[in-house]
Amino acid sequence: MTATPTRALRALTNEIVSCRACPRLVDWREHVAREKRAAFRDETYWGRPVPGFGDPAAQVLIVGLAPAAHGGNRTGRVFTGDRSGDWLFGSLYRTGFANQPSSVAADDGLELHGAYVAAAVRCAPPENKPTPAERDRCLPYLARELSLLESVRVVVALGGFAYDALSRVLASMASPLPVPRPRFAHGVVVPTERATVVGCYHPSQQNTFTGRVTEAMLDDVFARARDLAHGIA
């Protein structure tokens, strides 16, 4: 990747962090940052939109739903400091995309290699449920990230919400999913002109506690994403 797109990613990060487009989300993220969870009462919460992060030369983009209220909304980095992130970064470490198996803070030394992580919605939403209007206001950020991440060949959608968001983003980039659109499923592979989309159950506690998703299932998805990014069928 050239220096210019790298600088553009930094500029986009700054733009995302300063966004106040959705009043409900602004109120909620700032309320959570003031009230805090008892376990984190001595910490200063981020309380702002959470940008994507990772390798600017990534071949694999990973898209989640939104920052967790006491995870990314606290730490300032998506999937950092929550149980979903423990599962995600553990799998990325085992499959060679991360230099360490967990992430608890934005300055804890985590580095991603060949991967970039973002979310469909950048603010923590009440009950983890953004409205369709909030999703649609935020999606241009994801479209711009994908445009700037020139080496991305595979996008992993963590959950049905992210899959639907990606469908909209790719359609806006003149690279729509096939019609009829394949239904979201764990392990589904959907080629488009811009990138191949791979479905993955979200590593939420609801899914990990019930066994709907396991470490092996996550590892299989990211190993498959690596192979697809390298042109291995």
Question: Explain this structure to me?
Answer:
By secondary structure, the protein is of the alpha/beta class. It has a single domain, classed as Uracil-DNA Glycosylase, subunit E (3-Layer(aba) Sandwich). Helices cover 41% and strands 10% of the residues. The protein is built from eight helices and six strands; from the N terminus they run H-H-E-E-H-H-E-H-E-H-E-E-H-H. The chain has helices at residues 3-17, 23-35, 72-75, 83-94, 132-148, 160-172, 205-210, 215-229, and strands at residues 53-54, 60-64, 115-119, 154-158, 189-190, 196-200. Strands 1-3-2-4-6-5 form a six-stranded mixed β-sheet. Helix 1 (3-17) runs antiparallel to helix 5 (132-148), helix 4 (83-94) crosses helix 8 (215-229) and helix 5 (132-148) packs across helix 6. The radius of gyration is 16 Å and the shape is globular.
Could you tell me the radius of gyration in angstroms? 16 Å
Strand line-up across the major sheet: 1-3-2-4-6-5
CATH topology-level name: Uracil-DNA Glycosylase, subunit E
Q: Write the CATH architecture name.
A: 3-Layer(aba) Sandwich
Domain count: the total is 1
